[in-house]
Amino acid sequence: MAHPPLKAVTLTHVRYRKGDQLGHFLAWVSLVPVFISFGGFVSHFIFRRELQGLFFAVGLLISQFISEVIKTSVQQARPATCALLEMCDSHGWPSSHSQYMFFFATYVTLLTIKGLGFREFTKKWVANLVTWSLAVLTMYSRVYLGYHSVAQVYAGATLGIVLGSSWFWVVNSLIFYYFPAIEESKFGRMFYLKDTSHINNVFKFEYDNARAARGNIASKSD
């Protein structure tokens, strides 16, 4: 009895040429979306419960769903190197990795501008430079490692920017007004959901409140 061909789970399955140090580095760069998803957003939900962050994550999920729909519809093949990578059974246009990272970079930049204003934003250029550098490196890694063509990664990057800016507008122009209602809902209270985007300096606010709470506890114990 013939067995169907095996298929790998490609979430962290990234190949590079043995001995290629640049390829090794770019293989790790290619995994940045995985680190952001599981390390960043999961830990954010556990420790922060910020509505802005939660809707950011929802937008990334929607973006990836759209990417898969487009891939399935267009069915453009990957480059010829897909045979070595065992990826020829999947489609390459647009690049999901590029789309993810450029969505992420666009949303982070717009969120920074919204929270700080454009003049203050220029003072935070380092954080945004790192974000966009990772996006460009991820795009380059997918071509260098042979998973996508140049056209496929540019298509993913363009779609990521369009979807990232569009979702930012939806969240911060429409859904944003429902944040107080979500906070006060039974679901919001159960999971301690909150929005602190209206606070100028969240770190100072939390620091001052933590110190005040400690002072209150100390005064009651005296």
Automatic annotation (TrEMBL):
GO biological process: lipid biosynthetic process; protein N-linked glycosylation
Domain Phosphatidic acid phosphatase type 2/haloperoxidase: 53-168
Location relative to the cell: Membrane
Single Gene Ontology MF annotation: dolichyldiphosphatase activity
Pfam family, one: PAP2
Domain of life: Eukaryota
Entry's transmembrane regions: 25-47, 100-118, 125-147, 153-179
Any one cellular-component term (Gene Ontology): endoplasmic reticulum membrane
Record's keyword terms, sorted: Hydrolase, Membrane, Transmembrane, Transmembrane helix
Topological relation to the membrane, as annotated: Multi-pass membrane protein
Protein's UniProt name: Phosphatidic acid phosphatase type 2/haloperoxidase domain-containing protein
Native species: Erythroxylum novogranatense
